[in-house]
Amino acid sequence: MPEQENVLQRGLRNVYLDRTKSSFIDGKAGKLLYRGYNIDDLARFSSFEETCYLLIFGRLPNPKQLHDFESQMRENRAIPEPVTKIIDGIKDAHPMDVLRTAVSALSAFDPDTEDDSADATIRKSIRLTSQASTIVTYHSRIRSELDIVPPSTDLNHAGNFLYMLTGVKPSQEDSDLIDKDFILHADHGLNASAFTARVVASTRADIHAAITAGLSSLKGPLHGGAAEGVMKMATDIGDKSNIRNYVSS
Q1: Separation of CA 158 from chain center
Q2: Of 163, 216, 227, which Cα lies nearest the Cα of 193?
Q3: Three-state SS for 241?
Q4: Model's pTM, two decimal places?
């Protein structure tokens, strides 16, 4: 019987790992669905908090469920003082390194760290979603030698992010714009960081470990780091009149 030739599937191309109802993406058709809902409709009619609820629980919330979920998000924005000190201690590091390190450190202060039940994992995921914005904005202000702006409980997730980043309560237009951006970035199928997080989670490691690993993968220039490269390219070009020379060089 002839030996079967092993075929390497680079980058998991054409490899099927699991089934999911959380999202579906068809890059060629320009289609992105969250739990069956078209991203165009969610961007027009939903909010980041409502979209998070949809992705976590598999259904859109009723008004009371959404109110309770939003309250959980607002109440869990603060990060422990020791984590703030860690951010200050590594303020000159790459922002992704700071985010990764701070998320890992949060596990030492989460009351549910050792509880791997579904309910506890959901509670931790909500806290992490809220705290991630605080980590990012604290680092931005600390490395710019500005006083940190404590999170507000009066603003939605997007508005609070801009408020902590700038120290000024944003306009409705700016808040809505960032809200749409957060919705669009909420889920993109089984990309490298999602795959990395799933591998770690499959060992029954806690969610902080899985997210820390996912963030490490996201930093790479062939994944999330590509956006950083695009920004550098745009800065180097400067003006549209320089595009041809930039591409030709």
Answers
A1: 13
A2: 216
A3: helix
A4: 0.90
Residue 1 predicted with pLDDT over 60: no
CA 163, 232, 28: angle at the middle one, nearest 5? 90
Say how far apart CA 75 and CA 228 lie, in whole Å. Answer: 31
Task: State both tokens at 174.
Answer: 């700016």
For tokens 């109802």, the residue is 21
Chain Cα centroid distance, residue 67: 22
* Long-range Cβ contacts of 87-90 (<8 Å, 24+ apart): 87/135, 87/138, 87/139, 87/142, 88/142
Token readout for 11 is 């980058």
At residue 55, the pLDDT reads: 96
Count of CB atoms situated within 10 Å of the CB of 141: 19
Residue for token digits 């969250």?
Answer: 34
Burial of 191 (0-12, 13-18, 19+ CB in 10 A): middle
How many residues are present in the chain? 249
- Locate all alpha helices (DSSP H) within the chain, ordered by sequence: 39-45, 48-57, 63-75, 81-89, 95-106, 118-143, 157-166, 172-184, 192-201, 207-218, 225-237, 243-248
Over residues 116-139, the pLDDT tens digits come to 999 999 999 999 999 999 999 999
Query: Which tokens is 42 given?
Result: 């969610």
Please state the separation of Cα 232 from the chain's center in Å: 21
Give Dmax (Cα) for the chain.
Answer: 73
pLDDT digits (tens, 9 = 90+) for 79-108: 999 999 999 999 999 999 999 999 999 999
